[in-house]
Specification:
The chain is α+β, with helices and mostly antiparallel strands and 95 residues long. Helix content is 19%, strand content 23%. The chain is built from three helices and five strands, in the order E-E-H-H-E-E-E-H. The chain has helices at residues 35-40, 45-48, 81-88; strands spanning 18-22, 28-32, 64-67, 70-73, 76-79. It comes from Pieris macdunnoughi. InterPro entries: DNA/RNA_pol_sf, Rev_trsase/Diguanyl_cyclase, Viral_Replic_Matur_Polypro.
Length: 95
């Protein structure tokens, strides 16, 4: 395959060893060892936690988002002002 420029040697950490195995019908099956690639790939935590995303509920390219009563931005996490307005406007007790 290398003679036909289908594959080429690589020392990249992203490459995986490939072995071709002949099947019963004489076609070839690629057998690839992805263990090294899996070791450096971030795991899909959403899938493992059985969480699903809804495209209509997702916000992309925003500087800040409101989530569960908090504002999450590049500056960190803070309380959503709309959620604490009643507490802030609560009358001060008098004697």
């Amino acid at each position: 395959m290398s003679n036909h420029n289908v594959i080429e040697a690589s020392s990249s950490p992203w490459c995986s060893p490939v072995v071709l195995v002949k099947k019963k019908d004489n076609s070839l099956r690629f057998c690839v060892d992805y263990r090294r690639l899996n070791d450096i790939t971030k795991k899909d935590r959403l899938h493992k936690a059985n969480l699903k995303l809804s495209a209509k509920k997702c916000l992309f390219f925003k500087r800040a988002v409101s989530y569960l009563g908090h504002i999450i931005s590049e500056d960190g996490v803070r309380t959503d002002p709309e959620k604490i307005v009643a507490v802030k406007d609560w009358p001060v007790p008098k004697r």
